[in-house]
Amino acid sequence: MERNIAHVALFAAMIAALGLVPQITLGFGVPITAQTLGVMLAGAVLGARRGAAAAGLFLLLVALGLPLLAGGRGGLGVFVSPTAGFALGFPVAAFATGLFVEHVRLRSAGLAAGLGAVFGGIVVLYILGAAGLAIVLDKSLAEAFTLVAVFIPGDLLKAGITGMLVQALARVRPQTLAWHRGAAGAGDLRL
Amino acid sequence: MISLTSPVETRAHRWPAGVKLGALCLASTGLFLTGSAAVHVAALLLVLALYAAPGRVFLQAGLRSLRVVLPFVAILLVWHAVTGELRAGALIVLRMVTLVALANLVTMTTGLGELVDLIRRLTAPLRRLGLPTHLLETAIPLVIRFTPVLVARAENLAEAWRARSRRRPGWRLILPLTLQALDDADHVGEALRARGGPLGPQ
Amino acid sequence: MQMAKAADFTIRLDDLGYEAGGRPVLSGLTLHSSARRIGVVGRNGSGKSTLARLLAGLLAPTTGQVRVAGIDVFRDRRAALETVGILFQNPEHQIIFPRVSEEIAFGLRQQGLDKVQAAARCEAVLRSFDKPHWRDAPISALSQGQKHLVCMMAVLAMRPRLLILDEPYAGLDIPTRRQLGRYLNRAGTHLFHISHEPADLEGCDQLFWLDRGQIVAQGAPAQLLADFTAEMNRLGDLDDIADLAG
């Protein structure tokens, strides 16, 4: 129980900390930030419920006015801006990523996490993000989607990193991945 | 951690947070319901006047936080110039800028403590339904404390990397950072238990 | 600070065992003591920290039982909060809140004090340590020694009858150690001090030597610490650092 609160809070802090990493620019001039990597990791490591809680907690702090979104943004303005769909989509994306890893049983934890991140952090998040954009900018969903599609390669990269990270975690710290079958034997390490 | 609350003390700092939040919700709904250009222009002017009232420093800080919507303003105007519906485009831009400005205004004039209190009041019905909302009171400060700790951790790792490598560390630091964060989480879990973490105030 | 009554206060560990990942960390450990300052000395990896966590009720024993003043500290958390406090080796592992006053008030609120009472007690503790100006200080701006002191104030504010110290001086300079040691002596609670550093334990009333999860000797500090130091120096000339656990 205590450990659950701590994990949720620490992954919320992780999403925030990754947002403070300076953005890098992909070969064709599109800037990417590491923040959604944090969202993918929260879902892929903690699973659906705790992952969504971590992303939700992060979002709550943004709403409270802390400048934790990539680029130092925060406050209630985020939730009425064109990118509101992406921000509000964070908990859903983490939940979907977690749902994927919990229910799609693959031999490799890393592969499950990478695919889960593609599903939650890209498919689900972009649908919500494009929907938000469509509402605020008064465009159709397809039109909104063309505006954000350039960011997909960067997010595919992040999904790949999520997969590699979870693969490594499954090896060195399997007890962390409650959803992973190999973790069953390590259950006695918990409180 | 520095909140986005403005250090310039305005009269609005003393208004109840709930009232400001309610007004923001009403204004957003109102602007989405009306298609009148006059109402939109008037709303934007009103918001700008609110920004200007406390003085120059406040106005500048406010305008700075509005810069994030500029790319979208540009995209919208170009888009609508191409499709030849510039009037409709202008209306969307006005609404977007007004809403973001208004929401930022609430953030700038409301302290963190007040908002946390508001959350406690808003979640009271959930608490009565048996949801453990008191956990938020522990979780929120934990995040505020651990974000700078994690950033410092990342900097230490980057330093250790650079001490032995000429290449940039980049994403390779995320695994050790995650492992450290997980260890931290275990220790914090322990510290919470040592002082009665999830019991909640009686 | 409240003086705990020594007469009815006993630590009883009976046939205590703990396993992590199928590997025994502690086994068949029995320890009874009513001394005011109990010390446990042992090498790295001897099970000292696990013992501290079992005694604080943070871990569930695999076998045997832990009773502090008759209380099952793992099961009865509310009673445990009034009875035991623990000071960790690394203050970063204990501090939960961004500001000093919030950190001190947290445990008090968990003990059932309301906001006003917790704030008053927090003020009183800060004043008794001559640090009233620390109240609103951000923890991140404090030095390592100052963070240790915040941890100590936060735990002592809860007025535990027993304070467990898990190598609280590791990595601190001599003046800081001495100052923290003085505050601890003044606190008037029972102390259960765990360390690998003989010098930390000289002032104890009763001492236990923990090795590979078992108590191998007990007695007065003077003799036991001399034996321990001699054995450590002997081992230091060997090369057992190469042995992997398990």
Attribute tags:
heterotrimer; A: 191 residues; mainly alpha; Arp2/3 complex 21 kDa subunit ARPC3; two-stranded antiparallel sheet; 7 helices; 2 strands; 2% strand; B: 202 residues; 2 domains; 9 helices; extended
Tell me what you see in this structure:
The complex is a heterotrimer of chains A (191), B (202) and C (246). Chain A is an all-alpha fold and 191 residues long. Helices cover 65% and strands 2% of the residues of chain A. Chain A has a single domain, classed as Arp2/3 complex 21 kDa subunit ARPC3. In chain A, strands 1-2 form a two-stranded antiparallel ribbon. The model of chain A is unreliable at 183-191 (pLDDT under 50). Chain B has 202 residues and is mainly α. Chain B folds into 2 domains: 11-122, no CATH class; 130-199, no CATH class. Helices cover 73% and strands 0% of the residues of chain B. Chain B has 9 helices and no strands. In chain B, helix 1 packs antiparallel against helix 5 (86-108), helix 4 (70-83) packs antiparallel against helix 5 (86-108) and helix 8 packs antiparallel against helix 9. Chain B is extended. Chain C has one domain (11-194, 214-237): 3-Layer(aba) Sandwich (Rossmann fold), CATH 3.40.50.300. Chain C has helices spanning 48-55, 77-83, 100-110, 115-128, 144-156, 174-187, 221-236; strands at residues 11-20, 23-33, 37-42, 63-68, 84-87, 162-166, 190-195, 206-211, 214-219. The longest helix of chain C has 16 residues, at 221-236. Classes of the chains: A mainly alpha (191), B mainly alpha (202), C alpha/beta (246). At the A-B interface, helix 1, helix 2, helix 3 and helix 7 of A face helix 1, helix 4, helix 5, helix 6 and helix 8 of B. Chain A: This is Biotin transporter. Chain A: It is a multi-pass membrane protein. Chain A: Keywords: Cell membrane, Membrane, Transmembrane, Transmembrane helix, Transport.
